[in-house]
Amino acid sequence: MKSLIAENLDDCLLDKVDLRRQCISQAVEEVQKVICRLTTEISHHDIRFQAIPYSFTYNGNIKVLAPNQFLVTVPVRGLAGYRETREQRWRYYTLEGTRLPCPLRDPEGLQQWLQIQQFMKSLWQWHEADVNIEGDIVPAKVLQVFRKLVENAIETCCLSGKVSMLTNSIAVWLAVETSQGQVELELAPAVEIPNAWSKKARWPRWPWCLTRWPSRERVGCIKSFGFTLLARSTYHWQLSFVQAEQMLLEQLDEDGGCRRKCFQAMRQMKEDVWCPGERPVITSHHLQTVLFWTCEKYPHSNDWQVFSKGFLRLVRKLYKCVSQHFLKHFFVPKSNLLRYANSGELDAVAQKLALFLKDPQMDLP
Length: 365
Fold this sequence. Notes:
The protein has 365 residues and is of the alpha+beta class.
């Protein structure tokens, strides 16, 4: 059975994986040009937001969540010398600056407050009321400023026929027409924190004494990249570890294993059969997290020599997480990446995964 799985998946999916890569590469190239024009115009009008240059190789500011759904992080400037602080006060303000009778809820999992005093150096613009309330840099305020800049840039750059704003979220979403079809982009202002590691992450005990993947040397290098804070919600900034995750992906199979091949096959099956469509409940980031946890549990090279075993191992892990509506973030295990996902959609994906695991040859694209 496993040999048949390997043969069928090799024959059916490898060509699709290559085609997917080509289509997404073309879409990313077109999106890059749009983003470069927009952010260059935005940066001219507000120094707090950096332009994203066009890259002929990998662009770390563009994260592909699905073939038609990208996350674009827009770095901000003027905030340097970050330091962690212990929270010692309640927040009682609305976004309009009025007083609340009860305090705002505390950050959860991947969330945190961001205070201007946490930076040793800061541009005076970050102290202004358009983004700052009582010393907090408030993501919703930043997004409000950024949204207006994006709207103006679309007009100024004469991109109205190609780019449109989507307004069903506090976040800034764009629809971009490409030769591969319409792509939806979330543009998230990002505070990059280099050479530091969040106290909310697996620190200082990560990796655990018995953990063999990644190596301790690799962990040290990963932590040196630091982390990022994204403006994606109202009061709290979201922790992101895009650079650390990219390093783990780039060096998956240094021992000659088939981890990447298994991951690509799982991702292709997810997009074709288990969870297709726009804004899917399961994204590539979820699958990537499943991959990382599985690599940690099965760290040895001989665990990843047989494609069929590795592939089914990933699918079983994915099924367990989706059916339980619980997937721990790899760097912040206290955060459940499926906590706010639609339960009905998760159950539908779990049912498809269960059917596949009963007969791994069925429903192959």
